[in-house]
Design brief:
By secondary structure, the protein is of the alpha/beta class. It is built from seven helices and 15 strands.
Length: 275
């Protein structure tokens, strides 16, 4: 479904975007439930609110006097649920990834690197969540690595509590690592998060075998993924640690669709600055 074309001042990034701002409008008469939620941000964030609110709202044109401030307006005839207002707040914190075929929506909790930390890209520091991924993935076994992994799972669990689409999802699906052995950091992370949020875990199988890691130029473009169980009618969350080009998540989403998933939501800890 295509939304109304955004207007300035919001210019979307081709990789991912946060919701820049939102405001709730209402009649002065507090007894009237009608509310409007005005949003400045990407179409992908607005789509999430529309899916979460279901038939409680509709997209309407932004009033002319607010068109230079907001890009979308949602009308809630019976009132704005607190859960949806809280979702708008969450979408100002996380990154809504640009449209990815096979995914109803896709989110990264943050960027991997902070470009504001240095003028030299080689000196960019990790974001707080990026640092948890780095320590949990690359540190040798020990207290620091274990604590990073625990903290990262807790960050995911907090996100699940705040986002109704993910909270109400039926199952978490893994994304195979480059070794195709089911033991990648991303797959272990998905298993730990599934246990923490009390959701079933389904392991995606890479039937095409190992491939070079992404940092060495490897790609999932030629990989084939398969889910060895039926997901008929279920809402599926494809969970991974790092999103680069999105090809691995796209392949896992396609496998979920082929297994009967009703909707597929992507989720990664971080998004790299490069595709």
């Amino acid at each position: 479904m295509s939304l109304f074309r955004p207007v300035p001042p919001f210019t979307p990034d081709s990789r991912a975007n946060r919701l820049a701002d939102y405001t709730v409008y209402k009649y002065r008469d507090m007894d009237r439930p009608l509310r409007w939620l005005d949003l400045r941000g990407p179409e992908e964030a607005v789509q999430q609110i529309l899916m979460a609110a279901s038939d409680l709202c509709r997209l309407v044109p932004v009033p002319s006097e607010r068109m230079q401030t907001y890009t979308y307006e949602l009308e809630f005839p019976t009132g704005l649920p607190s859960e949806i207002r809280e979702l708008a707040g969450l979408l100002t914190e996380v990154l809504s990834l640009r449209r990815n075929p096979g995914l109803d929506c896709s989110i990264a909790l943050d960027w991997y690197k902070d470009p504001e930390s240095s003028e030299d890209p080689m000196q960019w520091k990790n974001t707080p969540i990026g640092e948890l991924v780095y320590r949990g993935k690359y540190y040798t076994a020990g207290t620091s690595r274990n604590q990073a992994r625990t903290d990262l799972v807790d960050v995911f669990a907090n996100f699940f509590r705040r986002h109704p689409l993910y909270r109400d999802g039926d199952v978490i699906v893994t994304v195979p690592g480059h070794k195709a052995d089911g033991q990648s950091f991303g797959e272990k992370l998905a298993a730990a998060v599934a246990q923490k949020v009390d959701k079933p875990l389904v392991q995606t199988i890479c039937t095409s075998g190992p491939r070079p890691p992404a940092k060495e130029g490897g790609s999932a473009a030629d990989a084939t993924f398969e889910i060895p169980t039926t997901l008929h009618g279920q809402d599926v969350i494809v969970l991974d640690d790092v999103c680069r080009s999105g090809s691995s998540m796209r392949k896992a989403a396609l496998a979920a669709r082929q297994s009967g998933a009703a909707r597929v939501f992507g989720l990664s800890a971080v998004r790299t600055m490069r595709s």
